[in-house]
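Usage example:
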Amino acid sequence: MTRKRKRLAIAVCGLAALAAATAMVLTAFRDNLVFFYSPSELAARPAIAAGRIRIGGLVENRSLAHEDGRRVSFRVTDGATDIAVSYDGILPDLFREGQGVVAEGRIKDGVFVASSVLAKHDEKYMPPEVAAALKKSGHWQEGGDAGALAGPPPAHFR
Amino acid sequence: MFAYLANPARFMRVSGRAWRFVAASGIAALAIGLYLALAVAPPDYQQGESVRIMFVHVPSAILAEGVYYLIALASFVALVWRHPLADVAAQAAAPIGAAFTLVCLATGSLWGKPMWGAWWVWDARLTSVLVLFFLYLGYIALVNAFEDPARGARAGAVLALVGVIDLPIIKFSVNWWNTLHQPASILRMGGPTIDRSMLVPLLVMTLAFVLLFAALLLLRMRATLNERKARALRLAAPPRRADPVSTGAAPVLR
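Running the assembly step on the lines above writes:
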């Protein structure tokens, strides 16, 4: 074995060991790497709902209600399960019904009281005319696979 | 081609002609790309005009990762085959890659505030890109931390190879874990989800960034090689009025 072959073997083995170690670490810490839980995960594992958490999903259509002052209430759904959210604060630009959302807060009497609400954008980029045409022709796909994808285009185009 | 350019003297000859051409085409592509991105591309149906930030953010992100892949590859070649130009290329690329990473983080933050409602969140995608930025800084610091440049290059190459594990994590973070950052729009199963009217300006901007990076890399590599040559000549020159023991024994750096 020449010295070059030896160095090559060491480098390749080192990288493989590193990759395996990283994969194991990431698998072990999977629960701490997620940014939010879906309503279904929350329902299946009540233990995670004990402290301060983030939940994510789509804002359910026709669930947004403005209460007194700035307080709003809406439901977050992942298609299977949904949870009521109450929030007192300023909503981000992209917040709308049918759109992805991530809320941080804690559960109180079955209602998720949010201290902050973030809008989640999806991976679709298109001009308003294309979105309108897709919707008109019936090719619009609502929801999608990731659980927090786009809804229909809003009534007000900017 | 790499074997042909392995000779530093030949590299200097070829790159001296090539870098001007690469830089000129990069500037031309940047002018066209900026015009398409800022004036021709339509606003997005959800984000409005803020979508234009993407035309700088996404190419920076691609380069931030691509440059690191290049550094890792060059470091691998340097460690295994002791290629004379590999260390030079890796060290010349690092500050440029760090700059792209910083631009990516800054533009993402500027987009995140109006769209998400937050300048920064600690989700897997954002955090792994921040780690990449620190990897760049650590690599640059480590390479320059040694008295002997060869030892610095060796240590830096090992760090660069260890850090390469962050790149697949960045790429797949949005698929493996729930993140606030959206999943990939271009390189994904089922084709791009960006409308052609926005994809074309984005690709032109990406090409411009790649060309500008290549021009800067060539310039920085040439500067490093010239610097080494100048130092070697200085050390090889007959000492004037100095005692021959301390200067005469100095090794000639190659």
